[in-house]
Specification:
The chain is an all-alpha fold. It is built from seven helices and no strands.
């Protein structure tokens, strides 16, 4: 029962993470990285179906919620976001496309999931760079809720299954990296 509740709560945390993010996009505060959200939209779907194929249950609530929210943010990024055509964005998108091709040819859900995490990390890296280059353009509360969603999804797995734990644990790490980049920049400029 606790795993089921953790799954529900992870999905709720992820869905809630999009509320302040979307609000801040419309306020002109958050400027999301277009390439990152394109990558995350594609990968959210792949992650969901890979985990489903490997037998995930309640932890799928986080992954499914994230895929839907990523799509909404990507659509908004087309009008309100930053980037998409810079050299680093093109490099990131090319790396993501190569990893997706490798995934296609593997046919194995575990390898697909690891490649998805690699590609997602490319998107996270682009957002880390963007949040450092354009301070204050990420909604910190959203990334805290995303971290919480990843943590609760890890609990929802309910066993020490590295394949099923890989994505939720990665979500925690990626969220922490984005939060650290935002905090590092702000701290450095407060001291200056």
């Amino acid at each position: 029962m606790i795993f089921e509740w953790a799954g529900y709560l992870s999905g709720i945390a992820i869905l809630l993470s999009f509320v302040p993010y979307i609000r801040d996009i419309f306020r002109g505060v958050t400027k999301n990285e277009r390439a990152s959200w394109l990558i995350w939209t594609i990968l959210g779907s792949i992650s969901f179906f890979s985990q489903l194929a490997k037998g995930a249950s309640w932890s799928l609530l986080m992954t499914g919620s994230q895929a839907i929210g990523d799509l909404v943010i990507f659509v908004l990024a087309m009008r309100y976001g930053l980037g998409g055509l810079s050299r680093k964005d093109k490099s990131g998108l090319t790396g993501a496309a190569i990893a997706l091709l490798l995934w296609y040819f593997t046919g194995e859900a575990t390898i697909a999931l690891l490649l998805v995490i690699l590609v997602d990390a490319i998107g996270a890296f682009l957002t880390v760079l963007k949040s450092y280059e354009h301070p204050g353009t990420e909604t910190v509360s959203s990334w805290i809720l995303t971290f919480l969603g990843g943590f609760l999804a890890s609990v929802a797995v309910g066993e020490m299954n590295l394949t099923l734990l890989a994505f939720p644990v990665y979500i925690c790490l990626a969220s922490a990296a984005i939060l650290a980049a935002s905090k590092t920049y702000r701290s450095a400029h407060k001291a200056a």
